[in-house]
Amino acid sequence: MAEFTVVNAIALAVGVIFLANGYHMVRRGREDMVLFATSVLVGAGLIFVALFPDAFQFVATVLGLELKARAILVMANLTLFVLVTYLLNRIGSLYEKVSRLNEEVSLLRAELEDHRDE
């Protein structure tokens, strides 16, 4: 039987917070499905790890690692890599949208100034 620690309780609490955040995003009408799915996956993953801490022994065996801690670090790093990549792509996309919006505002401002001069 797995030994439950404070780390398990913290992981469970953070997982529940991620799930609640996903629920509140959808309830408020901010239905960005990628963000919602990411929140649900991370939250469910944390809850699973909190409730079944020995699952990483299986992951360590499959990955050919000696220690469960190394499997946890590998999975955490891969998860963080995916999240950071997603966020960087999202930032780039938002930067492009802001640039286009600034161009349109500048054109509208110039057009408004032209109409005022007439």
Topology (SSEs and partners):
Blueprint lengths: L5 H23 L4 H19 L3 H9 L4 H50 L1
Helix pairs in contact: 1-2, 3-4
Organism: Halodesulfurarchaeum formicicum
Pfam family, one: DUF2304
Keywords: Coiled coil, Membrane, Transmembrane, Transmembrane helix
Biggest beta sheet attributes: none
Q: Class by helix and strand content?
A: mainly alpha
Radius of gyration: 23 Å
Measured distance between first and last alpha carbons: 83 Å
Mean pLDDT over the residues: 85
Strand share of the residues?
Answer: under 5%
Tell me the series of helices and strands, N- to C-terminal.
HHHH
Strand tally: 0
Query: So what's the overall shape?
Result: elongated
The structural domain count equals 2
What share of residues is helical?
Answer: over 70%
Uncertain stretches of 5 or more adjacent residues: none
What would you note in describing this structure?
- This protein is mostly helical.
- The chain has two domains: 1-53, no CATH class; 56-118.
- Helix content is 86%, strand content 0%.
- It is built from four helices and no strands.
- It has helices at residues 6-28, 33-51, 55-63, 68-117.
- Helix 3 crosses helix 4.
- The N and C termini lie far apart (83 Å).
- 8% of the residues are buried.
- The mean pLDDT is 85.
